[in-house]
Amino acid sequence: MSREGGPASLEPAPERRGGRAAYVAAVAVLALLAAVLAALVAVTYFRLRELRDGEAAAAEALAAARTYAPDMLSYDYRTIDADLARARGYATGELAGHYRELARALAPTVKRQQTVQQAVVAAAAVESATPDRVQVLLFMNMGTTKVLPGEKEPQKQVVQNRARFVLVRSEGHWLVSELSTLIGNAPGS
Description:
CATH class: Alpha Beta
Structural class: alpha+beta
CATH architecture: Roll
Radius of gyration: 34 Å
Strand content: 25-35%
Distance between the termini: 109 Å
Helix content: 40-55%
CATH topology: Nuclear Transport Factor 2, Chain: A
C-alpha cells in the first residue's frame, strides 16, 4: 500500500525512471563505441596486412627486376634471336608482343652492325608497391660495341641509363608488364 493508504502504484518513481534512462543511454553509447573501435581495429589490421604484403612483394619484385634487367636490355648480334626470346620470357602483355616486334625490326640492324650491348645494374629501388604490382627504378651502365658502315674498327660507348620496370605477379612469379628507359650521357661527356 502507498503512504496515503491507497493501492501501491506500479509506476516507478520519477527519480528511478531518469536513472534508468541514463543507464540505457550509457549502455547504448558504450555499445556504439565498442562497435566503432572493433571496426577501427579491423581496418587497421587489414591495412597493416596490406602494407606487409606490399613490403614483401617489393622485396621479391626488386630482386626479380635486378635479375631480369641485364637479360632484357642486353643482346649480341651473334645470338640476337635467342636474346630477345629470353627477354620475352620475362615479359607479359603488350611488352611481350613488343619483344616479338623487336626480333623482326631490330635484329637485321644489330646483325649488320655487329652490335653487342651489355647492361649492368648499378643500383635499383622500389618506387611503389602493392601486393600484385611493383614499380622499380633501375640505374644501368650500358656498354655498346658496334661496327658502323664504312668503319673497320668497332665503336665503343658506355652510357648511364635509367629504366623503369612495372612488375606484376602472375601465377606465383613476377613478370615485367611495362618497361621504359631514359638514356643519360656517356661518362665524361
